[in-house]
Amino acid sequence: MKFSKILERFLQLIPVLLGISLIVFFMIELTPGDPVEIMLGDEISTPEQEASLRHEMGLDQPVHFRYYRFISNALVLEFGQSFYHRRPVIDLITERLPATIELTIVAMFIAIFTAVPLGVIAAIKKNSFIDKIATVGALFGVSMPAFWFGLILIMFFSVQFNLLPVSGRITYDLEVPNKTYLLLIDTLILFRLDSFFDALKHILMPALTLGLAMGAVLMRVTRTSMLEVMSQDYIVFAESKGLKRFRIICWHALKNALIPTVTVAALETGSLLGGNMIVETIFGWPGLGRLVVEAIFDRNYPIIQTAVLLYATTYVLMNFIADVLYTFLNPRVSL
Amino acid sequence: MLITRSDVLDEGQSIFVKNLHDFVRDRLAFASSLIVLFFFLLALFAPLIAPHDPYDTDLMRRLQPPFWLDGGEISYFLGCDALGRDILSRLIFGSRISISIGLAVVFISVSIGTIAGLIAGYKKGVADILISRLCDILLGFPYLIFAIGLMAMMGAGFKNIILALAYKEWVEPCRVVRGETLAAREMEYVEAAKSLGASSKWIMFKEILPNILSPLIVVSTFRMAYVIITEASLSFLGIGVQPPTASWGAMVSDGREFIYDAWWISTFPGFAILILVLSINVGSQGLRDAFDPRFHR
Predict the structure, then answer these.
(1) What is the per-residue pLDDT across A129-171, written as a single tens digit (0 to 9) for each?
(2) Which pLDDT does position B297 carry in this prediction?
(3) Average model confidence (pLDDT) for chain B?
(4) Are residues A108 and A66 in the same domain?
(5) What single-letter DSSP state applies at residue B244?
(6) What share of chain B is helix, strand, coil (3-state, %, to 5)?
(7) Which residues in chain A are closer than 8 Å to B281, comparing Cβ atoms?
(8) Above 60 in pLDDT, residue A29?
């Protein structure tokens, strides 16, 4: 894989990102009514305050100038002030981001470590009972509304059996000082096992809810690609050489069968971030998704705008990584 | 290419009829489509079927459980919510929201996507570049985020949901149609129409479109499932259909406060979404297996 190819593919991202920024910028323009009045809401304000906010948001300037300012500010991560919190938007977002990242990583782990083995077994034992269960399970996984699945988990594990906490990241008196801002790692570094298990209990249900749909997709991809690989000549050859079946599956087949899985996993991680609004709302998870949902009800447009831009950029970058990863793992395909 | 038995047509049988036979033979998919049909009928005749007025509040029946639990009544089959409204009736009326939004969004987006895809695939050149880039940009947004962002800006409401979902939803059918059109424009029948002097509009809509209908139908049904879940998610978050209108997503959200003492409020509407979406997915898979030659078993 040539470096110049990757660079070329990377440069292709620029028009897409510009287009995304244009759409995000015009979302505010779509808003019915005067954004200044909406942002000020019920607060009593003087005409001077309104004028100063209007000036601060650049609303007294022509539209192309405002877009230019939006882009140049976004490039240096300057997204303005949240009027409601009276703090810079970027601070609010970076504060909430670690919780979302931690949740996403754990959800991804759950999805990969259940979906891949299940997909492989389903493929090797095609049309068996396990295969049918896995296939039906995957269909349920993509058809289940996440918000409902989360509630069912709460009813079962919290209300009925009182095993897991309903909301939050950690119990109040078990909090630990921040190092990496990822609680599971922080608690381990400090050898606070009680806190670690408490944080683990808190993250389990949200991560399971978030991981379900991703796991379903990954299972199907793994199964399909494993089926394809198992019918290839080199596998038949390895079998006729008398190699152990377990070795063929784990060593010869899996290596190639996992290529699409890895790519889809990277893609899905990007879209996983989209699902966290729902999951964070249900489980009171103090992450970015909840911040956005709160911002919607407060009509806090700078936060919504920034978050949508951030989500979209991450998603596009994950797509790019998936593409590069795919060619890296499968040299026959070029970008 | 190997010709299997099911690829051979009986005399006088059209491919469409043969595919339809294949679909009906797939019992699971056929049963699922019957369930979908059941939901459609429910939505259509909701006022005739629902046992009570879905908006009729009765605080005496606040949080009344389903009939099989203590305190339940057979006439309030699935119990009542926090305002004493009959859950079964609200479920039946809620199907109207899910299905009408699903149908409206899919209809609008498939129409736009088909036209855009035909133009991009047939004309190629500048039109193709413009349309494909726009698709790339819209695909850059995670689905739910885009809809949430738009709803936050436009405000909640029935019409706005349809718009917010359709803005991005046309991309998927557009890409399918574009791909199919690119392949179809090189076929002999298009060549023949061209040499007979047919206009490009005629070729696109009268020659190519009927030939790519199968994949288009399949992608439309799959997208319908997606749209229904997204609408429910928006309504769950409170930025979709506004109360007191009965919608499944909002009903699940209504029950959140009461999961400790009234599990039935959230459980049934969520289950309805699951069954409807699952049936659409299974049915679509059956349609794809039967109608898309690449998936012929």
Answers:
(1) 888 888 888 989 889 998 999 999 999 999 888 888 888 888 8
(2) 43
(3) 87
(4) no
(5) T
(6) 75, 0, 25
(7) 139, 142-143
(8) yes
Tokens in use for B58? 């009765």
Segment (H or E) for B65 = none
| Residues within 8 A of B (CB atoms), A 5-24 only | 15-17, 19-20, 23-24
- Yes or no, beta carbons of A159 and B263 under 8 Å apart: yes
| Each residue's pLDDT tens digit, A63-78 | 788 888 888 888 888 7
Distance between start and end Cα atoms, chain A: 8
- pLDDT of B279 higher than 90: yes
Residues A8 and A100 reside in one and the same domain? no
**Preferred mutation among A148, A209, A267, A317 to probe B, highest tally of B CBs within 10 A:** A148
Per-residue pLDDT, averaged over A189-213, amounts to 88
Does A301 lie at the interface with B, CB-CB under 8 angstroms?
yes
Tell me, yes or no, whether A124 and A11 share the same domain: no
A146 and A14 in one domain? Answer: no
CB contact under 8 A, A30 and B252: no
Q: pLDDT, tens digit, for every residue of A273-282?
A: 766 888 999 9
A274 lies within 8 A of chain B by CB = yes
Is residue A69, in this structure, part of any structural domain at all? Answer: yes
For A142, list phi and psi in degrees, rounded to 5: -80, -20
Question: Which residue range(s) make up the domain with A23?
Answer: 3-75
Residue B18 to chain A, least CA–CA distance (Å): 26
Residue A174 inside a domain? The answer is: yes
To the nearest whole angstrom, how far is the Cα of B249 from the nearest Cα of chain A? 9
Q: In chain A, which among 159-218 make CB contacts under 8 A with chain B?
A: 159
Nearest of A214, A213, A227, A208 to residue A267 by alpha carbon: A214
Q: Using CB atoms within 10 A of its CB, is residue A325 exposed (0-12), middle (13-18) or buried (19+)?
A: middle
CATH code for the domain in which residue A305 is found: 1.10.3720.10
Q: For residue A62, how far is the Cα from the chain centroid?
A: 36
Give pTM, 2 decimals: 0.88
Check A278 against B143: CB less than 8 A apart.
Answer: no
Nearest-neighbour CA in chain B from A168: distance (Å) = 16
- Cβ of A321 under 8 Å from any chain B Cβ? no
Q: What distance in Å separates the CA atoms of residue A88 and residue B52, rounded to the nearest whole number?
A: 51
The band of B35, judged by pLDDT with boundaries at 50, 70 and 90, is: very high
Inside any domain, residue A334: no
Q: B19-46+77-295: which CATH architecture? A: Orthogonal Bundle (1.10)
Could you read off the pLDDT of B251-273 as tens digits, one per residue? 999 888 888 888 899 999 999 99
Same-domain pairing of A57 and A105: no
Residue with tokens 């004028």: A51
Query: Residues A51, A180: one domain?
Result: no
Query: Which of A31-45, B67-81, B161-175 has the weakest average pLDDT?
Result: A31-45
How many independent structural domains does chain A possess? 2
How many Å lie between the alpha carbon of B54 and the closest alpha carbon of chain A? 22
Contact B143 A311 (CB under 8 A): no
State how far residue A184 is from chain B, nearest Cα, in angstroms.
27
Quick check: is A134 in a domain?
Answer: yes
